[in-house]
Amino acid sequence: MPMVRFDGVSKRYPSGKEALSKVNFELERGEFAFLTGHSGAGKSTLLKLMLQMERPSKGHVYVDDDCVDTMKGSQVPYLRRKVGVVFQNHQLLFDRTVYDNVAMPLLIAGYQPAEAARRVRAALDSVGLLGYERRNPIELSGGEQQRVGIARAVVNKPQLLLADEPTGNLDPELSEEIMKLFLRFQQVGVTVLIATHDIALIERMGHRRLILEQGTLHERGAYART
Amino acid sequence: MPAPDKTDRKARTGGASAHTIRLQDRLSAWAQQHQLVAVETLMRLLTRPFGSIMTWLVIAISLTLPGAMWMTLDNLSQLSNRFQASGSMSVYLQPAVADKDAQQLLNQILGTSGVAGANYISAEQALAEFRATSGLGEALDLLPENPLPGVIVVEPELSLPQAEVIALADSLRSERRIDSVELDTAWLDRLHALLALSERIVWVMGALLALGILLVVGNTIRLSIAARVDEIRVTKLVGATNAWVRRPFLYTGLWFGMIGGLVSWILLAVGWALVSGPVADLATLYGSEYRLLPLSAGAALVLLLGAMLLGWLGAWWSVVRHLHQIEP
Description:
The complex is a heterodimer of chains A (226) and B (328). Chain A is α/β, with parallel strands linked by helices and 226 residues long.
């Protein structure tokens, strides 16, 4: 069974703008793929559909065999716990430490504090930020903040990791490091989908590419599957 | 094409196998989380009181008003119970009844069981008394005849229960020569009626002030929700249930109520301390042992728990109205 399946998905906003039209694709478990397209092509909308941050006007979205768009509101939190998300603006909270930011999904999921502490350290270690626990995210550089965001996205060991322009504000070297980080999560079995318009980077890295052009999805085969 | 990074710092995440949490752990984590949120929200209020001190005071005052009235009524009804036994009655005779008949009636009444004493005041005596006390002497001279009836004042035995006093009055009313019987306990009935009315007014006022508390807490919680929109978005995004998001706000409402209730206790205690001395002095002057009672422990507890419930409800009302508008 695929991890993600879009079945004839269209999304029309109340303004009349059609963000997506008849999108079909599948992501196998453990697959790594890029989602590209110009800004406004519908990349963010497509990601949001997988978290029920938006609902499709037509068609169905399946994540881990559950139909997301017909899911009851009370089930949505449990869907979101299975999916890690990284945003361009990283959505960190500056009124608390790096540790508290990363630990948040664990506390919500009901982990014991000791177990949560162990996992937070592991997650921070995996993004190379061990020792940053007591810092405030606001003191960190853009790249470091993005890595805190990634640590928070993976701390609960999600099956699916989504990233929306995770390298949007970073220079090419940092961007490549972040991408390598995502690859490492794929290597341990996480399904990864990264939305980006950084074509040069994607060309260098290979992998499957889903291309959105004015709401329609095209696919370009992988240069090199890992 | 760069090969995937395979350094020793291999990611420790991934693999769905470690994803299940035992139910027992889940429950204890849930209880721990409640405890954590309860303590955290209380500390937040106590360490930074300036933002919410107005809310506490509004709640406290809204509670103190009905609390003080309640205390007053409680005292009045205690006091009124002491008067229960004294119930003399005035028996008004028909105008045509002559003094001789009246004397006979008096003896008859004195012979009735349950009567401790009786005293006849003739129409002439009554008129003389009225003339002396009312200052309407000249006006009374203009009247063709004495408008006042003769009266027999009957003192029932002190031990006589209220019901038998009333029965005695009824039996006197049926006597042909008697026009009407007025129980002097009527004023007591009126006092009781007045107390019942006041109690009703306290409830109505209490209800209005409770509504005020709901609005004040609701508004304060609304502001604190607005201040934490980002946090709510992020928590929902990483899988917080609505209950999880609501929890800190509901506890905050509960604490608002509790602190307001405690402050109101203090205000009521201070009020009692200020008034009880003069009341005791006044009672002593009337030869009474009466002392003003403070708010009873039961009433104080009801006040505190009621305040906490109101705070919680106010928070709930606000949270239900505003939280669903905040979605990631």
